[in-house]
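G., the chain you wanted modeled:
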Amino acid sequence: MKKLVHIAFIFSSLLLNGQENIQDSSLNSKANLAFHFQNANFVKDNEYFNDVVEGYTLIGLWATPTISYNITDKATIEGGLHALKYSGQDNFNKILPVYRIDYRITPTLCFTLGTLHFNDNHLQPAPMLDPERFYLGQADNGVQFMLNKQNLKGDLWLSWDKFTWYGDSVQEKLTSGLALNFNIPVAETFSVKIPANLIATHLGGQINRPKKPIETLINFSSGLFASFKIDLGIFKDLQIGSRAFLYNKNTQVETRPFKSGYALLPEISVNSGLLDASFSYWYSHKFIGPRGEAMYQCISTQPERKDTLYNTRKIGIIKVNYTKEIVNALSFKCGFEGYQILDQKLFDYNFSLSFICQIDKILPRPKASK
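Predicted structure as tokens:
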């Protein structure tokens, strides 16, 4: 696992040149002091009745107020808190500190220590990193490199999920991820997109007692997509392509039912700016994504069905999302996802509603006393 992380970090250092800036509110502010407020009020209802994942509803809100200070034109410190509360409970479910230092190595590459930026689900596909983390909390801490060039986006991160110290009986837990999205313009209305993704989870530690077996699980994905500018009613963009996924485990004991697996996800999608829709087909063979969305797994996430396994899963998927900016700092989103589970002859679905608020306010400098 450590070698894997070192290789990923070294690879990121090869991507330092470029001209475009990182697009993040705390990084682009020219003011010395600024206030940032991110908030989502949400409802997500999972109407699931299959053997892999059981239905449930998430309804509540989260808020992340922070204050940032630009020490120099390259370095920014930012601190605040992240609070999560589900409706129907008296107390907050999470109140976590947020603190990070961002250093812009180049205009296109930013290095972060502390609370990670969680833009676009770290650019990871749902089978490898669950998009539902948007509702469950996003105050992960660790190390991150973010790259933003015109035709290349990247996110390399290491999250320290569980800290251990001498005398602890639990093991340390780490998650690392790498995402690279290449865009190759071919013509004015046509481009080729190549995503490459890696997620690795590690369970280990040298100082815990008693000693426990070390486990590392790895997901890798890549694909090829053709993207077209079109004039089809309200839709202006069309994308056709496919991803391939791999799963592999390295462990000292047989703690997982499958040692390796794979999956395929061909997809066609259209986008209008306000509305986007996609149609895809999921075929998997002994695939496990330890941080991925449960619907895509070949093992059950239900405690009473922990021995339920599927060598193969076949699912037809439709996703529709609508996003509307109401005012400058407030947008409304709603979505529907349908899963035709061919193995069990079931149609499961979910729908979601949310208001998302993003406020970035430059704070006035205090006036000098006379």
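Confidence is low (pLDDT under 50) at residues 4-29.

Shout if anything looks off.
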